[in-house]
Amino acid sequence: LEGSAFLGAIRVTVSQAPVERILAGLKTRLMVTGGLALVLMTALSLLINKRRMEPLAALAKKMDQTTAENLTEQPLPESHDHSETGMLVQSYNALLTRLDSAMRRARQFSADAAHELRTPLTVLRGETEVALRWTRDPEEFRSTLESNLEEIDRMGRIIEDLLLLAKSEAGELPMEKTQVNLNDLMRDLYQQGKVLGENKGIAVTLELPETEVVQVMGDELRLHQMGLNLVTNGIKYTPTGGRVRIKLQCESDQAVIVVSDTGHGMAPEHLSRIFDRFYRIDKNREQESGAGLGLSIVKWIVEAHEGWITVTSKPNEGSEFKVFLPRISPGKPRNTAS
C-alpha cells in the first residue's frame, strides 16, 4: 500500500505434507496403542474374572462331591481378602464343620443307644420267652415281671443320660445359673446318700466349713446331679461296712467338693479313662449295674461351671474325687456340722 493506492501482494505457501505425516503417525500410534490397551484390558479382565470365579467353581464342584462321609475331608482353600467370594467360601467351610459335628453326634448317639440297650432288651426277651414256654405259678410270673420292670427302668435311665450328653455336646442344654449355697447343697446330698448307704450297710459322713458359707454361681439342679452321681458312684463300688465321705472345703478362690470312699479302688491305668463315656472296669461291671455314663455327666457339669475334677485311687483302698469350682464371696453359715 502507498497512501491509498494498492501496489501488490505477497503470498506465502507452506506445504502441509509434514504435518499430515505427523498426524498420520500419531493416528497410527494411537490406534495401535488403543488396540493393545484394549487387548490387555480384555485379557486382564478375563484373568481377574477367572481368578474370582475359581473359588465359585471349586465350591460348586465341592458341593457336588460332598456326602455325609466326607464333609470335612478336604475343605476349600480360604482367602483373607474379605471379598464376597472369600466370605462365601469361609461360610461354606464353617457350615460343613457344623454339619459334620452334628452328624458325628447323631452317629455317636445311635451307636451308644444300640450298645447300651442291647443287654436289657436281651434280658427282657429271654425272661419273657422262658415265662411263655413253661407253666409257672403266679409268684414266679410276678418275679419275672419285677425283673422286666427293673430292666425297663434301666433302659429309661440310659436313654435320659444319653439325651443329656447329646444335648450338652450340641450346646442345647442352657445353664440357669444363680447364686448357690454349697453348704445347703451338701446337706441335701448327705441326707440322700445316708438313705442309700443304709440300704447297703455303708456309713455316709459329711464335713462342712465351720465358719463360712461357700457359694458359687451355678445351676443348682445340675450341681446337685453332679454331686449325687459322685455319691451314688462311691456307694455302688463300696462293700458293706465301708464308708463314703462328703466334704466341702475352700482352697484360695476355689470351692472344693470332695467325695471319697473305701471301696474297690482303681488301678492307675484306669484313671485317665474313668470319665470316658461307657468306660467301666471289668471286675466291677459284673458286680454292679450301670451304663458307665455317670462320670461323663459329672465331668460335663463341672466343665460347664468353669471348673475341673481330679481323681486319685488305689486298688482295694478306695477312691477320692475332687471338684474345683470358682467361688464367690463367703458369708456366715446357718449350720456347721451334720
Identify the notable features of this structure and list them briefly.
338 residues, Heat Shock Protein 90, elongated, 8 helices, Helix Hairpins, seven-stranded mixed beta sheet, 7 strands, single chain, alpha+beta, disordered C terminus, 2 domains
Report on this model:
- It is a single chain.
- The chain has 338 residues and is an alpha+beta fold.
- It has 8 helices and 7 strands; from the N terminus they run H-H-H-E-H-E-E-H-E-E-H-H-H-E-E.
- 19% of the residues are buried.
- Helix 4 packs parallel to helix 5 (220-236).
- It has 2 domains: 84-169, Helix Hairpins, CATH 1.10.287; 178-331, Heat Shock Protein 90 (2-Layer Sandwich), CATH 3.30.565.
- The protein has helices at residues 17-65, 84-133, 138-169, 182-200, 220-236, 268-271, 282-287, 294-304; strands spanning 178-181, 203-207, 213-218, 243-251, 254-261, 308-314, 318-331.
- The chain is elongated.
- Strands 1, 2, 3, 4, 5, 6 and 7 form a 7-stranded mixed β-sheet that branches.
